[in-house]
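Can you make up a polypeptide sequence alongside its tokenized fold?
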Amino acid sequence: MSVPGSKSLTNRWLMLAALAEGSSVLHGALASDDTTSFAEAVSHCGVRAAWSGPDELTVVGCGGRPRGGSSVNLGDGGTPTRFMAAFAALADRPIVIDGSPRMRERPVAEGIAMLAGLGAPIRWVESAGRLPVAVGGARLLGSTLAMGATSSSQFISAVMLIAPWLERGLELVFTEPPTSASYLELSIGVLARAGVPVSVERAPGGELAAVTIEPMRVCGCDIKVEPDASSAVYPLAAAALVPGMRATVPGLPRTTAQPDRGAIDALVAMGALERTIDGSTSIEHGGALRGISVDASSWPDGALAIAAVAAAASGTTTITGLHTLRVKESDRIAAMSAELRAIGCTVTASDDALVIDPSNRHDRPVMLHAHRDHRVAMSLATLGLIRPGISIDDPSCVTKSWPGFWESLAQFEGV
């Protein structure tokens, strides 16, 4: 099954391409609500970004100086909103950034404080600490920023991605192990692939201790975006669940740096069989699945699919490292708890963990709620392949990351 391009990589390459000099082409890019809204937003700010095919995005950058004076709304997109705020910090005039009612509830204050620490002018339009916010209107020299614990890694990635356009570059010093460090590693990899000088210091345990990014002139380039490991988890989870099934995701290498690779490893720990076919990742059913205990702190998005698979396993599954899920498109810990309980599972939830006991799961018809969250909907959908009577409300929410998900899932019909 082909899956869309990586949302995380598409957004990161779009950020660099929008700030670069000249033209870039992102091949295999993801066309979804998040990436399209980000492309439209930068297009209001002196960048030309247009889809030249279903998965090909051509971007003519602004040379590190966005045109300000506009207002943009990124909808439900957490990553695009936070990336756009950093993008706006380089603008010649302020840019007003807003989002959906849910996005207005999500934390942005600590990230906006990072931009203020770099010297970016900031004005809260309605309520301090909440969208909408006006950012930009001054030249940024660069700085050393000391980073403690944060609720999200997205703003740290955002300031890393604008660092080449800071006159003195950027040094990030981590006083505590960073949240979702795997996504920061992804950003470091993208910068390095773009030719940006990046040096990394690590603590004795291997955690990020400091990242230094030098200023440089970034030019446009052609980039092939990997298939999305976060999306790949759903067909691979389906293969783990359904007897006799094998699912292969063309172009997704075993060695991908995308964090949700960890969710695929968790499927194997539960009893699925992993194969490499023509260099691509493949999972096949390996018999009855078993519950596991796993730390998902480096791949929290993929943990939702593992929670759904746990509802069909034998024994209890404990998933920890989920503290960032409370402030996503939904409160994902509460959402998955409620929906797995609706099919009879016993679920114990905390701010950091889910404990799922499927021993009392029933097969009665049930309407499950997506909570306006694409990953909740797609995770629960995998259970419909092995359990009758599942309906899911708000199916259109999947357009945030995989507009063709339901058509792709139909390939499993009759298995």
In short: The chain is about 30% helix and 20% strand. The domain at 230-412 is CATH 3.65.10.10 (UDP-n-acetylglucosamine1-carboxyvinyl-transferase; Chain).
